[in-house]
């Protein structure tokens, strides 16, 4: 063997040895949702959601699944529930599919005019925005993160209602009812009280149903302003939910769709991949729901909810890598609930079903233990320094307010940073006072910011909020929360899923 040949052989042996060592030393990547063989929903153990409420009149269904491990649970898979705004995900998907096919455009404009004004308390498209030309991208995202009903109505009219039904039919998933905007739901409920409402324009019906606005009703549709007792509205709501299948879902159908999104999101360069990625990204713009409050601060939650009188529906996905392209969901959870008798006296007359919300908040600990069994929520996180975090403050709202208002006017993160840094930290607060958490970010170089605040209550339970800002050089975020439980609290601050601050304080009576 020549000297040159020997050197080549020795080099090949070294390279082979190095490759062998790397293969042994590098842990295998977790399979994605598209690769992981997952259990059939029917084989999952029961969720036992009813254990999280003292009421015996709640019908609850759902599916919880970790896409990496296959761990999960299921309950009442095939029970049909009114899902209210949860089917807005199908509307968004229809829009993104038509964009991918060149049949719609993100920057197309629609005018928010009086014929879409519904007067809802939580509407993001409110009276102050009448006359605005709004890009379709914004309308669709507002429909998801704000669950905005006027935006939904506008998007449905832009697409054509039959296009949305066509998309749903193409899924081949049983258990999804026809989707209609809530302006029509409002009108149907009123028509069940008085058939004359069938001839009233939907925007006028919604304005009356939501705010008892009678402008435009007399004398064109009624000889005098209509007026109904609470019991009449409650009975009409019950009649609607029991007799119509609009905006309905089974837990199996919603779980099947979320699994489809998670799998198809990995099909980069395809229409299905674009649709799934876009819907998931829109979900990631939302707050955490009641059923995901106990999730770790090291994961980001994307959600959609729906609620109406006596019912609530929630769907959530989680990701651990914020900047993964495409997004890679690692878990999903679906929970749907309703009061058995919607005409019962103790069913709340408003659209917020408080008993159901409380049940879902308590169930979130059980869901977390299935999806993230090794997460110890009782321990404070190990805080890591980050050069982009210029200031963090936890203080009374009254103390922080002037600095924050100045920032909202001037937009100077530097001035706000210096203002907040001059405040002494607090370690106690009186009940019913409001605690503020503020964070100033600098040197971002046009990067995104994702902020998660996790509150640990004296009894060990948790709730959390998420905020995000995109393509910033500097930005400040703040959240103000009333404190109503005495004892020791803890606030943990996560920036891009990394803990950057933790502080405890005492709430005193």
SSE blueprint and pairings:
Layout: H1 3-25, E1 58-66, E2 72-75, E3 81-82, H2 88-100, E4 109-111, E5 133-135, H3 136-145, H4 149-159, H5 161-171, H6 182-193, H7 202-211, H8 230-243, E6 248-249, H9 251-264, H10 271-283, E7 300-308, E8 311-319, E9 331-339, H11 354-371, E10 389-396, H12 397-410, H13 413-421, E11 428-430, E12 434-441, E13 447-456, E14 462-472, E15 475-482, E16 487-495, E17 498-508
Helix pairs in contact: 2-3, 2-4, 2-5, 2-10, 3-4, 6-7, 6-8, 9-10, 12-13
Description:
It is a single chain. This protein has helices at residues 3-25, 88-100, 136-145, 149-159, 161-171, 182-193, 202-211, 230-243, 251-264, 271-283, 354-371, 397-410, 413-421, and strands at residues 58-66, 72-75, 81-82, 109-111, 133-135, 248-249, 300-308, 311-319, 331-339, 389-396, 428-430, 434-441, 447-456, 462-472, 475-482, 487-495, 498-508. α2 runs antiparallel to α3, α3 (136-145) crosses α4 and α9 packs across α10. The protein is globular. It has 5 domains: 1-29; 41-80 and 248-371, no CATH class; 88-171, no CATH class; 182-243, no CATH class; 389-508, Sandwich (Immunoglobulin-like). The strands form 5 sheets. Strands 2-1-9-8-7 form a 5-stranded antiparallel β-sheet, sandwiched between helices. The chain has a 5-stranded mixed β-sheet with strand order 11-17-16-13-14, with no helix packed on it. The protein is α+β, with helices and mostly antiparallel strands and 509 residues long.
| Distinct helical segment count | 13
Radius of gyration: 26 Å
Helix residue percentage: 25-40%
The tally of beta strands, per DSSP, is 17
Give the overall average pLDDT. Answer: 92
- Label the overall shape: globular
Poorly predicted segments: 1-31
Q: What characterizes the major β-sheet?
A: 5 strands, antiparallel
Trace the largest sheet across and list its strands: 2-1-9-8-7
Q: How many individual domains?
A: 5
